[in-house]
Write a structure and sequence with these properties.
Blueprint: E1 2-3, E2 7-12, E3 15-20, E4 30-32, H1 34-42, H2 49-59, H3 64-80, E5 84-85
Antiparallel strand pairs: 1-5, 2-3, 3-4
Helix pairs in contact: 1-2, 2-3
């Protein structure tokens, strides 16, 4: 899976947003924190939820099970708006 080409990741003053282009059916912004920024960076190339959770675990302190759940939640929300290509 990876980020759909109709969505662009942009970071402004430490805040990461996903912006749909004219080709997207979704109209709005998705804001995220540092965790979402790492997830979106991983989605720039083909990846899996497990690989993203591993990247978060390598960068941040925390419970890997919780990180997996967080990744799954973010991916689910991005899929709902059409921002993920499987």
């Amino acid at each position: 899976m990876k980020l759909n080409q109709n969505f662009v990741k942009h970071t402004i003053d430490g805040q990461t947003v996903v912006v749909p282009t004219a080709g997207a059916d979704f109209h709005g912004l998705v804001q995220g924190n540092k965790t979402v920024e790492v997830i979106l960076n991983c989605l720039e190339s083909d990846t899996t939820e497990e690989a993203i959770a591993d990247e978060l675990y390598n960068r941040f302190d925390g419970d890997k099970k919780v990180m997996r759940a967080d990744v799954h939640d973010v991916i689910t929300k991005l899929r709902e708006i059409g921002a993920i290509d499987d």
